[in-house]
Design goal:
Largest sheet: 7 strands, mixed
Radius of gyration: 15 Å
Oligomer: single chain
CATH topology: Rossmann fold
GO molecular function: 5-formyltetrahydrofolate cyclo-ligase activity; ATP binding; metal ion binding
Number of strands: 11
Distance between the termini: 20 Å
Enzyme class: ligase
Protein name: 5-formyltetrahydrofolate cyclo-ligase
Keywords: ATP-binding, Ligase, Magnesium, Metal-binding, Nucleotide-binding
Structural class: alpha/beta
CATH architecture: 3-Layer(aba) Sandwich
Family: Belongs to the 5-formyltetrahydrofolate cyclo-ligase family.
Number of helices: 4
Strand order of the largest sheet: 3-2-1-6-9-10-11
CATH superfamily: NagB/RpiA/CoA transferase-like
Length: 187
């Protein structure tokens, strides 16, 4: 299937999940994340979930990062430029939903993309080669172009992989890992 078809299918699959199912799977994903070989790193970028889209609840991973004394980075999106600005998440960070219901920091201490070691990546679907399908705006591909080459990209998904995704472009950045409730896929 192509990206457009996969977007429709996986949005529908997510919407069929109950709150209890998404919470249980999100916790299972966080428990799997613990076994990744990433914990010697310092700066972790994480997305705050869009509840209305039933995205993976990253609160469990946020607790892991806090418990391990890691620097946690969250982003604010500019839909005109498709650029994301990254901020350190602190106790004083104010979070507000934007017009697309994305929880974002109001302001804070800006962190350059080159400082980030690990990025937890939202997605709708992924394939066995590490390609992902997001919402189609290109925010993360643009973000990755400003990161170091060795940044570790970790997708989070309720569902397992497709065999292949049709219509992959040269600029589509592949994941290094994708974590599901059942297993970790390494690419």
């Amino acid at each position: 299937m192509n990206k457009k078809e996969l977007r429709l299918e996986y949005k529908a699959r997510r919407q069929k999940l109950t709150f209890d199912e998404t919470e249980q799977m999100s916790l299972a994903i966080a428990n799997k994340v613990l076994s990744l070989d990433i914990w010697e790193k310092n700066y972790f970028h994480i997305f705050l979930p869009i509840e209305e889209q039933k995205e993976v609840n990253t609160e469990y991973i946020l607790h892991l990062l806090s418990g391990k004394d890691k620097e946690t980075v969250i982003s604010k999106s500019d839909f005109q430029t498709r650029h994301m600005t990254h901020f350190l998440l602190t106790d004083s960070t104010k979070i507000r939903k934007n017009q697309y219901n994305i929880p974002e920091p109001v302001d804070g201490i800006e962190v350059p993309p080159t400082k980030i070691d690990v990025v937890f990546v939202p997605l709708l679907a992924f394939d066995r080669q590490g390609h992902r399908v997001g919402y189609g705006k290109g925010f993360y591909d643009l973000f990755f172009s400003g990161c170091r080459e060795d940044v570790i990209k970790v997708g989070l998904s309720y569902f397992g992989p497709e065999n292949t995704i049709d219509g992959i472009f040269d600029w589509d950045v592949r994941l290094d890992f994708c974590v599901t409730p059942d297993r970790i896929y390494e690419f």
